[in-house]
Design a protein that fits this description.
The complex is a heterodimer of chains A (190) and B (196).
Chain A: H1 28-37, H2 49-56, H3 61-67, H4 72-78, H5 81-91, H6 98-111, H7 114-131, H8 134-137, H9 146-165
Chain B: H1 5-9, E1 25-29, E2 35-39, H2 40-43, H3 47-54, E3 62-63, H4 69-94, H5 101-125, H6 130-143, H7 146-160, H8 165-172, H9 180-189
Parallel strand pairs in B: 1-3
Antiparallel strand pairs in B: 1-2
The chains are: A mainly alpha (190), B mainly alpha (196).
């Protein structure tokens, strides 16, 4: 395993839904192996990736997205879906019982993962609620409905399947923007 | 047994009705050989220690080679405080028959005050330098004390929140090991969070 710094993406046709994830290819395992080599001294936040992930899991969405730019290890850890899962579950109404947690995770993974769920559904909704001051008032009432989030999320998934399904070789670069982006803008329903 | 307001407010971690709680003291030995005593109840806030006690490995003291004395004393302080708090909550819940209305009000006021106390205790426990804070995290992780791990990790997260990337690197002495292309790719990957 002599893979040192490989700065570019692997070539070849990217699978349509995973385009954005192909960007940085250095895996978390590679970074951890590299870091093990450099040792000594007081504990550094990068010494243990699992502890780093515990810490990053307690950030808000924007801070977590910006944390990815700190260094390779942070980029790799912030890509862990478990970290985004922790963030999402802090804002979403509780699933009933521990078994439901596993079932939810399966569904969310099938639809594209918690990071995508946050990006498309929860993040925009939280931003809008924050701006409207709703979060300040009733913490309990502002907990977003898990089933609503999943419904919106599955709409996005079906859209992607429909748009990218046709073309194979080299296609899919010009995907129509997700219709869920409406959540980011105020909607006039008058 | 008459329950008077005086009794209700003198709550402490004495042995009480419902004799499951023993007052047995557990010895914990830090990495530098110092011995600390804690009640079994407080010690069991650590899932790691709880298992050792239940497996019968705790009789001669529990050596903790990963935890230095300075940190162990803070951890024990945390456990004592929070075990007592959990104890009080259980007591209030467990004796509804004894409580008349006055008692309830007193208990509720005491609880609210105690919660504030606990919050400020927690805040001051983690208001330490970075090295100590990480030592606490490592100890809480090793000892499986969820509340303390939560508390300490949240403190570090709060230090990261709303800081620029350069500031974060400086605070935690992290080297920027991205290549130009990687850095740009990561920035693009996460640009969605910054579009208004």
């Amino acid at each position: 395993m002599n893979q040192h710094r490989r700065p570019v993406c692997m070539g070849g046709p990217p699978a349509a839904p995973r385009q954005e994830e192909d960007a940085v290819v250095v895996t978390e395992l590679e970074v951890r192996v590299q870091l093990l080599a450099s040792g000594g001294g007081a504990y550094n936040i990068n010494d243990n990736a699992d502890i780093l992930s515990e810490i990053l899991a307690r950030l808000d969405g924007r801070s977590l997205a910006s944390a990815a730019s700190v260094c390779r290890l942070w980029a790799a850890v912030s890509r862990r879906d478990a970290v985004w899962e922790a963030l999402c579950l802090r804002h979403v109404g509780p699933a009933s019982g521990p078994a439901a947690g596993h079932a939810t995770r399966t569904v969310v993974a099938a639809l594209g993962g918690y990071r995508r769920l946050y990006r498309l559904c929860l993040g925009p909704a939280l931003d809008r609620l924050g701006r409207a001051g709703a979060l300040a008032h009733a913490q309990a009432r502002a907990r977003l409905s898990l089933s609503l989030s999943l419904s919106l999320f599955s709409i996005d998934c079906y859209e992607r399947l429909g748009g990218g399904g046709g073309g194979s070789a080299g296609a899919g670069r010009q995907q129509p923007p997700s219709s869920l982006l409406f959540l980011c803008k105020p909607v006039d329903v008058s | 047994m008459a329950a008077t307001p005086a009794d209700a407010s003198s709550s402490s971690s004495e042995a009480v009705v419902g004799g499951e709680k023993s007052n047995k003291m557990i010895t914990l030995i830090s990495s530098d050989g110092e011995s600390f005593e804690a009640t079994e109840e407080a010690a069991k806030m650590s899932v790691t220690i709880k298992h050792m006690i239940e497996d019968g490995c705790a009789d001669d003291g529990i050596p903790l080679p990963n935890v230095p004395a300075k940190i162990l004393s803070m951890v024990i302080e945390y456990c004592n405080k929070h075990a007592a708090d959990a104890d009080d909550t259980n007591k209030h819940v467990a004796d509804p028959a004894d409580a008349d209305e006055d008692d309830d009000n007193n208990n509720n006021n005491a609880s609210a005050g105690e919660k504030e106390d606990l919050k400020s205790f927690d805040a001051s426990l983690v208001a330490v330098d970075q090295a100590t804070l990480f030592d606490i995290i490592l100890a809480a992780n090793f000892l499986s004390i969820k509340g303390l791990l939560d508390l300490a990790c949240q403190k570090v997260a709060d230090d990261i929140k709303d800081k620029s990337v350069e500031e974060v690197r400086e605070i935690f002495k992290i080297e920027n090991d991205f290549t130009k292309e990687e850095e740009e790719a990561v920035r693009k990957e996460n640009a969605w969070a910054f579009n208004e």
